[in-house]
Structures are given as structure tokens and as C-alpha cells.
Amino acid sequence: MTTETAHPELDGLGTYEYGWADSDAAGAAAKRGLSEEVVRDISAKKSEPEWMLNLRLKGLKLFGKKPMPNWGSDLSGIDFDNIKYFVRSTEKQAASWEDLPEDIKNTYDKLGIPEAEKQRLVAGVAAQYESEVVYHQIREDLEEQGVIFLDTDTALKEHPELFQEYFGTVIPVGDNKFASLNTAVWSGGSFIYVPKGVHVDIPLQAYFRINTENMGQFERTLIIVDEDAYVHYVEGCTAPIYSSDSLHSAVVEIIVKKGGRCRYTTIQNWSNNVYNLVTKRAVAYEGATMEWIDGNIGSKVTMKYPAVYLMGEHAKGETLSIAFAGEGQHQDAGSKMVHMAPNTSSNIVSKSVARGGGRTSYRGLVEIGEGAAGSKSNVLCDALLVDTISRSDTYPYVDVREDDVTMGHEATVSKVSDDQLFYLMSRGLTEFEAMAMIVRGFVEPIAKELPMEYALELNRLIELQMEGSVG
Q: Where's the SUF system FeS cluster assembly SufBD core domain (predicted)?
């Protein structure tokens, strides 16, 4: 099977659907580079309390001291002095889609976000454009039950005590270099609190869009699920295609209390000039369940390892992830499960697809600490190589410090065989249709866990990525 492109017009820009950019007056005026002045200016523009400014300055100091990661992807191309750390696209948050500035509204119309709300496919919507959330809405009946769904900046102002109690407790300011950077310059993101016993029956959705060239987007999401409560949060991400790079470095902290359940779904479709370096971590207490559903498509480099710390007996953690790497892309993704209490359980299922010389890496850690007797963990990593020039690696790490535990790990790498293609093509499919069907079947265990509209979107994005893969 040759790797030459049958449809060159579909390669590069053509395989990425959201590569257009809007007018960029706000971005053009934004200052480049990171300094104490920039951090103080962000805090002042947001009228933040002194404790938050001090935390930001601490993050800046630690960012300067901490080394770049010496493992994983090559990050030497990031020019921190050329990044725009804060871009304010509008002066106020809109109360309805019609109130948004015309260029921003057109962006979200193209992406179909208002339609999801109109059809009541989601219980609440947040839309972040550049550094700040420009639109936010939640169903009235959820508000009446005490559910809080705000952008993180507004939550700091309206719920200061609840905010300060949990902010930075799951991911400390000095956790890693990029968490320190996020703490220094964070802006936007979602804040969710679900009261005891409340079940949010359909997902809350957030959408993150980078429009400015050399933009750095640093949203901060904080979710607190109280006892016996439930929420499903879905986020999507896109950016225009530019000749130079942008940086997305988010932090997500989740607290799931006794008997609670949280599902966090990401469908990321960044353009291939974005460095996507994200820290996501949850703590799950007695009988709680935390689920990460992670779809990583696009970006130049992704380094993302959603983690669950199982802190209470019978807590459960699960990560289901799919990564797709095309030409010039490296998806370095995985998961981390830390068992800190007895009779806890975790499950990691990782699927990756590489084509066109792309590279996928699974990097995972399962740690079963002293006192976590009776715990169970299972890891399954499957990689599919569409051609002979792509690459897949697996870096598992297991640390077990108890005797009475069950631990399983399985990893496979397979190629699309000529026999599979021949069989499907003998049934009337074109080579492209056959290849796309094989890939869809490979990722189906992940796709079936998504809400219907997101599963369809994932399959559509994969087909777009597959264009140009046959010939």
C-alpha cells in the first residue's frame, strides 16, 4: 500500500475544517511576552482580590524556576516571548447569542453552537473566545436546584468563599511548569458546583476558540460534585491555521465527593499549529466515580494525561481516550490512576491512530499505594498504523505497593492490512471508504460512550483527517 496522496488538494489546510480566522483587531493590539507587569495587568483588568494576585505572582516565579519537560514531545519551538497572554475580544459578556459582536457571533454560528442550545441538546452553554468567556447560559430549573455554572472569572466574584476553598487544591501552583504558567495568567474557563443529590440529566457544554495568531489560551476549569450528585461536562476546541504557533495550556481540577459521579468529555480539534499542553486531575472520595472521555484530534503537539486520585474506599476512575495523529503531529497522551484507599478500581482504554508520518504515544501511570488492598486496575492500549511511515509508542509505568491487588495491562499495535481493504472493496467500497470504515470500527468503543451528536462529530472529524491517506 503506497502512502502517496491521491487527492493533494485535501492535504494540509484542506483536512482541517475550522481553519478560517475572523478579524483580529483585539489580537493585533495585544502585548506579547510574559512579565510581572503582564500578570498584574491581567489581575487588575479583572478586579481580582489580593490573594489571587499573590497566587498569580507565585505562579510566575515558579514558572521561571521550573525546567521544561525533558521527556515526551519536543517543545523547543515554543517562543514564550512571542505569545500574547491575554486578549480581550469584547468588553462584556452577552446575555443572548444576538448580543454578541457580529464577528464572534458568526464564528459560533459556523461552529453550530447556538443550534445545540436551541435544540436543548445541552443543559447549559459557555463559549470562550480568546481569553474570556463571551457567552454563558444555564437552564432555569437547574439554577433553582442550586446548580452553579459560571465562567471562572465570574465565579471568583460571585462565590468567593466556595472558589477559594477549592481553587488550586487538586493541582497546586507548583505542580509542573505549565500548571505554574496557567496559575500566573489564567483567564476564563468554567466553574461548576452541583449540590448534594442533584443530577444534571443532560450535558453542560463549553466551547473554546483561539482566533489570534501567537495566542496563548489559559482557561481554568473547576468542578465540584457534591455527595450523590452527577454532572456530564463536554468541551470542544478549535483554532485557525496560521504559519506560526499558538499555545493552549489549560488546568482542570475536579472534586467528586462521596457517592458522586462526574463525566468529563473533550472533543479537541485544534489546528496543526497549536501546542496543546494540559493538566487535568480529579479526586474521587468514598464510592465516587470519575470518568474522562478524551478525543484528541489535531494540534501540532498534545501532551495530556487526565488523572484520578482515588481517595476513598470503593472509588472508581476511568479514562477512555482516542488520539489521531497526521503529518507533522505528535499526540502524547495517556492517563494516571493513583489508588490511595482500599477496594478502589480503575480502567484505562487508550486507542490511537497514526497516518502520514504522524506519531502517537501512550504514557500512563497506575500507582497502588500502601493501604489500598483489594484494589483493581486494568489498562488496554491499542494503536493502529494506517501506513508504513507513521509511529506508535507505549510508555506504561506501574507502581504497586500492596500484595492483595489485581493489575492487568495489555498493549497492541496493528496495521491496516491489504486483506481487510480487499474484502471491503470487493463489496463495492472505494479504498477511502474502506479505510475510513476500518478506522471507525477501531475507535467505536470510545465513540459509543459519547452523546449521539458528539459521536457523529467524532466520526466526521476522523473522516476529514483520513482524507489523502489512500492512493
A: 208-442
Distance separating alpha carbons of residues 445 and 112, to the nearest angstrom:
26
Asked whether 332 and 299 are in contact (CB, 8 A), the reply is no
Distances in Å between the alpha carbon of 5 and those of 206, 272, 352, 470?
36, 18, 21, 6
Q: Rounded CA gap, 105 and 111, in Å? A: 10
Q: Which of 270, 322, 326, 267 is nearest to 466 (CA)?
A: 326
Contact by Cβ (8 Å): 151, 190 = yes
455: left (phi over 0), alpha (psi -120 to 50) or beta: alpha
H or E element at residue 132: strand 132-138
State pLDDT tens for residues 215-230: 788 999 999 999 999 9
Position 146: which residue type? G
Cell 472529524 -> residue:
461
Residues in the chain: 471
Beta bridge partners of 377: 346, 407
- The reported pTM is 0.86
453 vs 440: CA distance, rounded Å: 15
All three cell numbers of 441: 470500527
> Considering only CA atoms, which of 154, 28, 38 is closest in space to residue 85?
38
